[in-house]
TrEMBL record:
GO MF: DNA binding; transposase activity
Protein name: ISAs1 family transposase
Listed PANTHER family: H REPEAT-ASSOCIATED PREDICTED TRANSPOSASE, PROTEIN YBFL-RELATED
Domain Transposase IS4-like span(s) in chain numbering: 101-342
Stored InterPro entries: ISAs1_transpos, Transposase_11, Transposase_11-like, YbfD_N
Ranges for domain H repeat-associated protein N-terminal: 10-93
A UniProt-annotated Pfam family: DDE_Tnp_1
Example GO BP: DNA transposition
Length: 383
């Protein structure tokens, strides 16, 4: 039995004083998510949307007499602990996903709007930068959770916190070069998952070692037992693209080769991307290197997982920036973090709706126009 958003909200502590509670916590959250689905971005817009749809909300929220003011929305999302609201989100995601399998991509994103200077939040002061690290299930097409990077810390310390909060058994966790750390790899292995992590030149010794291991096999037609290869080629948009994935595995000895800095390391991966423009014959080539806890028995699966990692950029970060205009938000601190979580809820609801074809913008417009469609999105089995 799935739990609705209203019931989930009732499970957490309301931070407001009883004498100041005019509207229930679940009422404020419910109206906010509905408004964000339909395009609202500010507290004023949420209030105006609620007033425009007052009959709609009265028919669904018992004892609702009037819509909270924009100041009420602002105050509520500013005082509620983001950890509480994030817990609502994660519990709700478990209801939506049931089970997470396949690739879980982890990546950080700076919320540029909340990170702009103003009189209160200036460069160097606490709360100036709002950097969030998110986990994305490529198979489910859903954000699994997020963690704020502390002012006096960085993504390296935030990633293990996020990983430990998720059910990742059997998954492949993909991370960019920030994940090439002992603590991060150890946390992933302890969660009964595997990893594929990019390795860049700023990690000079590890990068050179990985490059040396892979480069010996690029041009060899003969592949020995510890090396496997997968080649894919496609044509489109006036170009031909060829991708060669080479996986070299020495098993557990790999950990010693990298001086035990990467727990569970078994293989090195090289991805060679070759592109030819059909009309001009222009040719370009790029080579990227990765470390992984997977062996070399399934190079096609590894190549696919690496490509799926980019879905967090295309399907989460891009949508947040372009469709929901997150970078233009002027909210700060708790309000910015909590509104980001509400936005991810709205995005997930819209992405999981299969009844309306078309862009995310079209779905948001339709939800604002058609109350039956909005009701369909907000019904209990979608929460």
């Amino acid at each position: 039995m799935k739990i609705g958003i209203i019931d989930l909200c009732k499970q957490i502590e309301d931070p407001r004083m009883n004498r100041k509670k005019v509207h229930k916590m679940e009422t404020i959250i419910y109206i906010s998510i509905a408004a964000v689905i339909c395009g609202a971005q500010s507290w004023n817009e949420i209030e105006e949307f609620g007033n425009a749809k007052i009959a709609f909300f009265k028919s669904r929220i018992p004892d609702l007499e009037f819509i909270p003011s924009h100041d009420t929305f602002n105050r509520f999302f500013s005082i509620i602990k983001p950890e509480y609201f994030e817990l609502i989100f994660r519990n709700w995601v478990k209801q939506v996903c049931q089970e997470v399998k396949g690739v879980v991509a982890i990546d950080g994103k700076l919320m540029r709007g909340p990170s702009q200077c103003d009189g209160e939040h200036t460069t160097g002061k606490e709360g100036f930068k709002l950097w969030m690290v998110s986990a994305w299930s490529a198979a489910n097409g859903i954000s699994l959770g997020q963690v704020k990077v502390d002012d006096k810390s960085n993504e390296i310390t935030a990633v293990p916190l996020l990983i430990n909060s998720l059910e990742l058994s059997g998954c492949i966790v993909t991370i960019d070069a920030m994940g090439c750390q002992k603590d991060i790899t150890q946390t992933i292995i302890e969660r009964d998952a595997n990893y594929i992590i990019a390795i860049k030149e700023n990690k000079k010794k590890n990068y050179q070692l990985a490059k040396q291991i892979i480069d010996d096999y690029w041009d060899r037609d003969e592949i020995i037992n510890r090396v496997t290869r997968h080649v894919s080629e496609n044509t489109g948009h006036g170009r031909v693209e060829k991708r060669t994935c080479t996986v070299v595995s020495y098993g557990s000895i790999m950990e010693k080769m990298f001086k035990k800095k990467l727990v569970g390391l078994k293989s090195i991966v090289g991805i060679k991307s070759e592109r030819t423009i059909v009309s001009t014959g222009e040719y370009t080539q790029e080579v990227r290197y990765y470390v992984t806890s997977l062996d070399n028995t399934k190079p096609e699966e590894i190549a696919s997982a690496i490509r799926q990692h980019w879905s967090i950029e295309n399907n989460l970060h891009w949508q947040l920036d372009v469709t929901f205009r997150e970078d233009y938000s002027k909210k700060v601190k708790n309000a910015a973090r909590n509104f980001s979580t509400a936005t991810k809820m709205a995005l997930t609801i819209l992405k999981n709706d299969k009844t309306t074809k078309g862009s995310m913008n079209l779905k948001r417009l339709k939800a604002g126009w058609d109350e039956n469609y909005l009701s369909q999105l907000l019904q209990e089995n979608n929460f």
